[in-house]
Structures are given as C-alpha cells and as structure tokens.
Amino acid sequence: MHSLLLSALVPLSLLAVTLPEKALYLEGSSDKGIILAHGKGMHPDFKVVGPLRKALHEDLDFHTLSLQMPTNHEDYAGYEAEQPRVNAMIDQAIVYLKEHGVKSIYLMGHSLGAGMTSGYLVSHPDASIDGYIAVGCRGNGSKVVSCNDNMPKIKTSVLDVWGRANAEDEGFAATRRKLVGPKYKQYGIDGANHVLDGAEGFFVDEVETWLEGQETE
Questions:
Q1: Tens digit of pLDDT for each residue in 137-147?
Q2: Cα 217 to Cα 19, 28, 71, 130, 212, distances in angstroms
Q3: Is 198 domain-assigned?
Q4: d(Cα 152, Cα 179) in Å, to the nearest integer?
Q5: Is the Cα dihedral 154, 159, 162, 164 positive or negative?
Q6: Which domain covers residue 50, as residue numbers?
Q7: Which CATH number covers residue 25?
Q8: How far lies 81's CA from each of 68, 87, 207, in Å?
Q9: Do the domain assignments include residue 8?
Q10: What tens digit of pLDDT does each residue of 68-98 get?
C-alpha cells in the first residue's frame, strides 16, 4: 500500500530504474555509453559482445550495458513475439544509462541481436540512440527481426560489420551495399567467421575509430 502511494506521489523520473534482468553493466567515467545485444541462444558476455563491452570500458571509459536477450525459441516466430519485451528492455537500459550521467548512447547487436535491435530502431525512430553497430546482420525468417529489412528504415548513423569468411554474412552484406553513404559504413573483416574468432582486435579497433568519429561530427 505504501509503495503504491509513493509511486503515485513521486514523479516517475525520480524513481530509480534498475538494470534489465541478467544484464551486465560496467560503469564508465565518461558521459558515453553503449547497449549491447548478443546473438541467438547466447549470453551477455559471449563472443563479439563480450570483448567489445570490456574494450570500450577500458579504452574509451564507456559505460557498457550488455543485455540478456531471449533464447531457445524453436523458430523466428518465437523471437518475433519477444520483440515488445526486447523494446522495453532497451528503453529501460537507456533510462538506466541516463540516470548514470550518460549523454551519448549507442546501440549494438550481433546476429539475431542485430535483427532485434534493428527492429527496435525501426519502431522507435526518436529513441535516444546516437549511432548503431550491427555485426553479422542477416535477413532472418521474420521481417520484424530481419536486419536486411530493417536497415533501410534506420535513421541514425550505422556501422555494418561482418566476417567475410562466412558466406551467408557476406551475401547479406552485399545486398546492403547500396546503403553505404555519409551515415552508413560497411566493414568486412577478411578471414573472419560469424563470431569473429581471432579477429576481435580488428573489430574493436574499427568500432572505436568509428565511435570517435561520431563524436567529432
């Protein structure tokens, strides 16, 4: 009863926002932050997202918040049904970062995480996202979580990264080549697979260079 009364009396903006469930957060010393989304069936410290969240925290003093994405659905319809929950998690993450002094917020997704984060950006064109990094971005079975379908509709600056040794990723990236321009950059890593094994350093360097370039524009 008391908590309900408190909620009614105190503005929502003054109520502390918690981390999304099972998310991993590293608090930085700058006013910049990034929200990360892992691939299908994985976890917030898995390949691609794990090395990046730690590197950006250590090298650029970023706040990094890696989400626990939905896992273990049998088909893409299951993930499509989860999109509203993912959207709510990203909104929660944005508010959490802002409460920790973050002014510039970036969004990153790998594989299915790229599909779902791109879906968020399409449905939330006015969200407080200053740039988007998609890795191993594919055209999946549902248009809601299809990176290829969503990419042309995204308004913010984009860095599109993939491993050239993965034929599926290479093919999907080729269909997005027409989007390349002042706000859309592609970076294919020679010899890298879908999870960028052995190419983490090249990936991190490219992301950091791109992020630093966003801050000067």
A1: 998 667 788 88
A2: 30, 22, 37, 11, 9
A3: yes
A4: 7
A5: positive
A6: 17-216
A7: 3.40.50.1820
A8: 16, 11, 31
A9: no
A10: 998 877 777 778 888 999 999 999 999 999 9
